[in-house]
Amino acid sequence: MRHRRLLLAAFFLLILVSATACGAQAEQEPAASSEPTPRSSEVLTPSPSAPAAQSPPRTTALPAELLFSETMVRSHEVNKHNKGGQANVEMVAGTNDLTTLERLGHECVDAFLRQQTAAFCKVFGTDADYRSRDLRKVGDSNCWAFYVGVPLTGGEPIVTAGDEFGYDAERCPGKLYR
After folding, report:
1. Three-class SS of residue 146?
2. Residue pair 110/128 in contact by the 8 Å Cβ criterion
3. How many whole angstroms separate alpha carbon 59 and alpha carbon 120?
4. In which region does residue 165 sit, left (phi positive, over 0), alpha (psi from -120 to 50) or beta (all else)?
């Protein structure tokens, strides 16, 4: 194992010295070279004296960041028109990541503040949680993750987080805290 590490270190040192020497040589050479430039159909092969460098290991692509879009909106009403309008929005983000859900709540508010003076967005993680809300608006289902809003008076967004106790007590079908 020790022998392998020494060989690997020597290999990287050789590459470093070669790169430094090539860089210094390139600075000393005139701009126009007397050698013909290769055409696009020519294939250049490395010289046999220089060992071929290994390609870096493949990495898996990270999923694209989830951003707020109108397709997430499940209900939207505007009231208080005489005061500049207040948007009341319910949205489903399609994720159970609490950090992402809060960020999407802020993005939702920002989007509706372009049209109204005030905006409030109730953020649900999944459609199942959204469907479990109280349609009669008699009570307030605890199956939402965040309630984010800016009132008519303006200011910084107010953020209210749902809680695990209420989520479990309501027997919410999603998996926000599980």
Report:
1. strand
2. no
3. 39
4. alpha
pLDDT digits (tens, 9 = 90+) for 14-39: 444 444 444 444 444 444 444 454 44
Side-chain-side CA neighbours of 79 within 13 Å: the count stands at: 4
pTM (whole model) above 0.85? no
H-helix or E-strand containing 129?
helix 127-131
- Specify the pLDDT at position 132: 86
DSSP string, 113-128: HTTSSEEEEEEESSHH
Encoded tokens for 154: 């303006």
* CA pair distance 142, 134, nearest whole angstrom: 9
The CATH T-level fold of domain 70-169 is: Diaminopimelate Epimerase; Chain A, domain 1 (3.10.310)
Identity of the residue numbered 146: F
Residue 149 pLDDT > 50, yes or no? yes
Q: Is 73 helix (H, G, I), strand (E, B) or coil?
A: strand
Report the C-alpha gap between 174 and 178 in whole angstroms.
Answer: 9
Domain segments of the chain as ranges: 70-169
Q: Which two tokens stand for residue 39?
A: 């055409």
Q: Is 149 helix (H, G, I), strand (E, B) or coil?
A: strand
- DSSP-assigned letter for residue 80: -
